């Protein structure tokens, strides 16, 4: 990781039962994380830390914009992210991440760096499929993509179906080099 010392929370030194921290995750934050798929963004995180008798409850409110590549044209696009996440932190002998968002930090240190957790919450808020709004994709890339894709009326989600180059349509409507056994299987699907 890069210089992420500003994201350390001193749990052992908390003077009150609750504290609030405000973070801005900008381009330098995302660039400072090794292996980060997100390279640019402007995300605001509000972190509320509450001390209980046995643990610390960390509540993250995340809201902002990240810039990621479009799945369709590969141009950069803005994606809104918003999430509410929480962690429970306890003191123990050594650092460990347990199930159910439980983190153990060494009691002698009493510190937790929340940078990677904030990054993970932002990354998990990004939808699996991220594409530009209709008409906003790079037109040159869209034209190249249309040359190699076909959309059939049977496609439910308007997802293009890849055509293999040797499966190009012949004059009689059947694909050249096509295995006729697939026609029999298609009949089974058509009957359902």
Kindly describe this structure.
By secondary structure, this protein is an alpha+beta fold. It folds into 2 domains: 121 residues, no CATH class; 53 residues, no CATH class. The chain contains 4 helices and 10 strands. The protein is elongated. The protein starts with 7 loop residues before the first strand and ends with a helix. 15% of the residues are buried.
- Strand fraction: 35-45%
Gross geometry: elongated
Main β-sheet, spatial strand arrangement: 2-3-4-5-7-6
Helix content: 10-25%
The tally of helices reads 4
TL;DR of this structure?
With 192 residues, the protein is an alpha+beta fold. Helix content is 20%, strand content 36%. Residues 158-175 have low confidence and may be disordered.
Comma- or semicolon-separated keywords:
192 residues; alpha+beta; 2 domains; six-stranded mixed sheet; 4 helices; 10 strands; two-stranded antiparallel sheet
Write the layout of secondary structure elements.
Layout: E1 8-10, E2 18-25, H1 27-32, E3 40-51, E4 56-69, E5 76-92, E6 96-98, E7 102-106, E8 111-113, H2 115-125, H3 139-148, E9 149-150, E10 161-162, H4 181-191
Parallel strand pairs: 5-7
Antiparallel strand pairs: 1-8, 2-3, 3-4, 4-5, 6-7, 9-10
């Amino acid at each position: 990781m890069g210089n992420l010392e500003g994201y350390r929370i001193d749990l052992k030194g908390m003077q009150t039962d609750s504290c609030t921290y405000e973070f801005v995750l900008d381009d330098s934050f995302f660039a400072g994380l090794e292996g980060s798929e997100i390279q640019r963004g402007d995300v605001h995180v509000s972190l509320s830390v509450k001390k209980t008798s046995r643990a610390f409850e960390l509540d993250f409110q995340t809201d902002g914009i990240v810039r990621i590549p479009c799945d369709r044209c590969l141009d950069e696009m803005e994606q809104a992210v918003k999430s509410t996440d929480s962690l429970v932190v306890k003191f123990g002998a050594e650092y460990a991440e347990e199930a159910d968002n439980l983190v153990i930090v060494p009691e002698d240190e009493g510190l937790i760096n929340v940078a990677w957790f904030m990054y993970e919450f932002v990354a998990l808020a990004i939808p699996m499929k991220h594409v530009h709004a209709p008409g906003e994709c790079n037109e040159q890339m869209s034209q190249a993509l249309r040359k190699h894709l076909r959309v059939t009326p049977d496609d439910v989600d308007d997802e293009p179906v890849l055509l293999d180059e040797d499966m190009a349509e012949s004059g009689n409507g059947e694909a050249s080099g096509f295995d006729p056994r697939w026609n029999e299987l298609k009949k089974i699907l058509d009957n359902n």
